[in-house]
Design brief:
By secondary structure, the chain is mostly helical. It has one domain (26-147). Helix content is 55%, strand content 0%. The chain has eight helices and no strands. It has helices at residues 7-21, 39-42, 47-56, 58-61, 76-90, 101-116, 123-128, 136-147. It starts with 6 loop residues before the first helix and ends with a helix. The model has no long low-confidence stretch (mean pLDDT 93).
């Protein structure tokens, strides 16, 4: 007859694994930014739009990520790093000056479309960031400004 492990030994094993995975950290070193390269500066965004985009978009789509406390706990840290890297690969507002005029137009139109469809910000971000839950007025303001 095969003896099943006790609940205590399973919990101890899980605790050891959890502690061990904390050794694989993610790189949260701040990346130097140049305000003259930034989307909001170059596009001369009004203050209300600037504030909203910074609070709703910049954690995943710029080099100005504000990491919450749980971003230091694996495996959540790995998952967040993947989201941030994917977001910046789509558009990085900190390096807006590196995009061509055609790319900028396409990115602004795509951003407006994703906001309009309520696909951005993503649900998991809205769950952990109450200020990212856009009202219809905020959503309309962003869409209208992006489509100017």
């Amino acid at each position: 007859m095969i003896k099943r492990p006790s609940k205590r030994s399973v919990l101890i094993t899980l605790l050891i694994v959890f502690v061990a995975i904390q050794m694989k950290t993610t790189d949260k070193t701040p990346i130097k930014i140049t305000p003259e390269s930034d989307f909001l500066t170059l596009e001369e965004a009004p203050p209300d739009v600037t504030k909203l985009i910074q609070s709703v978009c910049y954690d995943c789509h710029s080099n100005l990520t504000q990491y919450p406390w749980y971003s230091h706990v694996a495996p959540v840290s790995w998952w967040l790093e993947g989201h941030i890297n994917k977001g910046k690969s789509k558009v990085n507002f900190s390096i807006w000056d590196t995009y061509t005029p055609a790319q900028k137009d396409a990115l602004k139109n795509e951003s407006a479309e994703l906001i309009e469809k309520k696909w951005m910000p993503i649900l998991t971000y809205k769950i952990t960031h109450a200020d990212a839950r856009l009202t219809e007025t905020q959503r309309r303001m962003l869409i209208d400004w992006l489509k100017e």
